[in-house]
Design a protein that fits this description.
Elements (H helix, E strand, L loop, with lengths): L1 H18 L1 H14 L10 H37 L17
Helix pairs in contact: 1-2
Length: 98
Amino acid sequence: MYHLSRFVAYLAAKMRHRSGAWGSVLALAVGLALLPADAAAYIDPGNGALLFQALLSGFFGAVFIARHALRRIAVRVRSAVGLGTDSGAAAPRTPPDA
């Protein structure tokens, strides 16, 4: 099984070099097709909780990164258009000279 995973990793690297991300997807599909169909395995509660936590944190991390990126894009667009980042408040008054 170790040699198969090394072969799939090698195949993915070669295909990624030649055809970009689609090569990785194709190598993953080939690797999954070569795996045995009947895997006598189970997910115990500890591994299930770990998997659930990893998926949940990945989702919220992606949401945070997307929100941060969208805010940066919005600030750049506003500054390019000339709207700035202020909320339209008037400039503070300076006291008159006496």
